[in-house]
Specification:
Layout (H helix, E strand, L loop, with lengths): L17 H22 L1 H24 L6 H18 L1 H30 L3 H15 L10 H81 L1
């Protein structure tokens, strides 16, 4: 329980933990993976097409040629066709990949910034510049294939966790000192109260003693009168 004097002390600071940061970092990893895929879409597209073609055409070739054409033949044919199509369509697929990579990176960055703004606005105090730099670098073709957003968030969260843990320890030390001072004040007040009660009790005892002495004196005087009579 905080001491009464803690009204003038700073409130308990919030502390970021690695566990709390992982959901946002996981989103950043997904964004980086999608951006990397579209960055190399001109190269990965033909590979995907060749793989899909091989899986679909192999069975048909074996059945149509009664096993004369093997799986290797299907893979070679599909790979050759995909490579030729990839080379012919490279300007289009490369442009499409770059545009999609920029779009995915920008929308992912905005989505993460939206999450941070409403759940962890403190991170912009120390990491706002780094997050902005990651957005700018994310528009550089092929360089944006590097997981910049994930790495930047990891670094920014690391700095935030370290600073907030240090701030929390300082707050705990301040509160512990405040509790000790409050306990000392309570002890001093308790002793003063006890001394006051002791003085009041002594005064009451003295007053009662004086009243008893006066009563004895009042009893003695009439007896003296009777003896004199």
């Amino acid at each position: 329980m905080p001491p009464r004097s803690s009204r003038n002390l700073p409130p308990e600071p919030e502390v970021m933990t690695r566990k709390k940061s992982m959901p946002v970092i996981a989103v950043a990893i997904v964004v980086d993976l999608l951006r990397g895929f579209f960055t190399f879409f001109a190269f990965l597209g033909p590979v995907i097409v060749a793989t899909y073609c091989s899986s679909q055409v192999t069975g048909m070739l074996e059945s149509w040629t009664f096993g004369l054409l093997s799986v290797g033949t299907a893979k070679l044919a599909c790979g050759t066709a995909a490579a030729a199509a990839g080379i012919a369509a490279f300007p289009v697929t490369a442009t499409f990949g770059i545009i999609m990579a920029d779009a995915v990176g920008f929308m992912g960055w905005l989505f993460i910034a939206f999450i941070l703004f409403f759940s962890n606005r403190r991170i912009f105090k120390e990491g706002g510049l780094m997050l902005g730099a990651s957005l700018a670098v994310g528009f550089v073709p092929f360089l944006n294939a590097v997981p910049l957003l994930s790495f930047t968030l990891w670094r920014v969260y690391t700095v935030q966790i370290r600073l907030e843990e240090a701030a929390y320890k300082a707050w705990e030390a301040t509160m512990a000192k405040a509790r000790q001072e409050e306990q000392k004040r309570q002890q001093v007040a308790l002793r003063a109260r006890q001394e006051q009660l002791a003085e009041v009790q002594a005064a009451n005892d003295e007053q009662e003693a004086g009243a008893e002495a006066q009563a004895e004196s009042d009893k003695t005087i009439p007896e003296q009168y009777r003896e004199a009579a």
